[in-house]
Amino acid sequence: MSKKALKRIAAALERMSPAPLDAPDFDAADAFLWHVEPDRLEPVPRISRVDLGLLVGVDRSRDTLLANTMQFARGLPANNALLWGSRGMGKSSLVKAVHGAVVAQELPLKIVELQREDLPSVGRLLNILRSAPQMRFLLFCDDLSFSHDDQHYKSLKAVLDGGIEGRPENVVFYATSNRRHLMPRDMIENERSSAINPSEAVEEKVSLSDRFGLWLGFHPCSQDEYLSMIRGYCDHYGIQISDEDLRAEAIEWQATRGARSGRVAWQYVTDLAGRKGVRLG
User: Which SS3 state, helix, strand or coil, does residue 44 take?
Assistant: First the structure.
């Protein structure tokens, strides 16, 4: 084979296997977004989040997650956490609010958001985070779930178990999902009914949720909790409205959407603030 051909092959291999990504300046921000093609950690200068005290009706989950995160940020043992349950009840808001509360204590905790579609690249990301042992990283995946024939769940094990190398000591993983077992119930039943050994057919996927040390459930809120959320937002942002008008408007708003949740409460507050000429944030 000629030298020219060898050079072409070498160049092609170099393009297929790019040089390892240099560790970014983690002092540049408290939050980063993980991107692939090419691999990079993009600093987030301003995190979209609410104050921890504004999250109503999730007291137990709030206290548990905050304590776990504080332990981790202080270099103590901590569990991976799965926040699961009803849509719009503040799962992702709680993760970001807890991170904000910990950073306010001047602890070296960075949050890194990873998209479900990028899970196959998580090994490369963990190697980057492992190279900065002086930092603590909260790896966060929002709205995590798996459909039939979805193989991304295998990459998740690298985060939860770490394989032969082990999960980096300076990384903890938090995920939110509408499903407790990260896969739809009909998928579980279908695989059980058609498998030679039904119990083994779904054990590998269902056991993913068992690898989270913390399971925090989020359930539909009551009307009183819904109204308390709205009143809390109004007081925080200085939106003037009587309790009687707030109750009437908020209940009507909820009825038009056919749902009652923290997200619906915030959507009403956004509309109310616009009508009152009050800026949020």
Answer: strand
Interaxial angle between packed helices 122-130 and 153-160, expressed in degrees from 0 to 180 and rounded to the nearest 10: 20
Residue 188 class from Cβ within 10 Å (0-12 exposed, 13-18 middle, 19+ buried)? middle
Cα-to-chain-centroid distance, residue 83: 8
- Residue 171 tokens read as 């990384």
What is each CA distance from 157 to 14, 216, 220, in whole angstroms?
28, 20, 30
Tell me how far apart the alpha carbons of residues 79 and 75 are, in angstroms, rounded to a whole number.
12
Strands 109-113 vs 81-85: parallel, antiparallel or unpaired: unpaired
Q: What is the pTM of this model?
A: 0.81
Neighbours of 182 (CB within 10 A): 21
- Is the Cα dihedral 88, 91, 96, 102 positive or negative? positive
Spatial contact of 268 and 230, defined as CB atoms under 8 Å apart:
yes
In sequence order, the 6+-apart residues with CB closer than 8 A to the CB of 250 are: 226, 227, 230, 265, 268
Residue 233 contacts residue 239 (beta carbons within 8 Å): yes
Can you give the pLDDT of all 281 residues of the chain as single tens digits? 666 665 666 555 555 544 555 667 888 899 999 999 899 999 998 998 889 988 988 889 999 999 999 999 999 999 999 999 888 889 999 999 999 999 999 999 999 999 988 888 988 999 999 999 999 999 999 988 766 555 666 667 767 776 656 678 999 999 998 877 666 555 444 544 544 455 554 555 566 677 888 999 998 899 999 999 999 999 999 999 999 999 999 999 999 988 899 999 999 999 999 999 999 87
CA distance 252 to 257: 9
Q: How far is CA 86 from the centre of its chain?
A: 15
